């Protein structure tokens, strides 16, 4: 993995961590179920991109 990919993976990990915290808060309130689904989708997309970068 080159430096650019490593930086991107690091950035994505921070994003996943932030999204997981926001998802936990959204699950506690459950005002908007679409918000929970959106956070879950964003987390899944970020994790998929991390795996893709690691594989290259």
Structural description of this entry:
By secondary structure, the protein is an all-alpha fold. The protein has one domain (3-55). It contains 2 helices and no strands. The protein has helices at 3-29, 33-55. Helix 1 packs antiparallel against helix 2. It is elongated, with a radius of gyration of 13 Å. The termini are close together. The mean pLDDT is 94.
Per-chain topology:
Blueprint lengths: L2 H27 L3 H23 L1
Helix pairs in contact: 1-2
Pick out its properties.
mainly alpha, 56 residues
The low-confidence parts are none
User: From the alpha-carbon coordinates, what is the Rg to the nearest angstrom?
Assistant: 13 Å
Count of domains: 1
Summed over residues and divided by their number, the pLDDT gives a mean of 94
- N-to-C span: 7 Å
Shape: elongated
Helix percentage = over 70%
Structural class: mainly alpha
Tally of DSSP helical segments:
2
Provide a compact summary of the structure:
The chain is mainly alpha-helical and 56 residues long. The protein has helices spanning 3-29, 33-55.
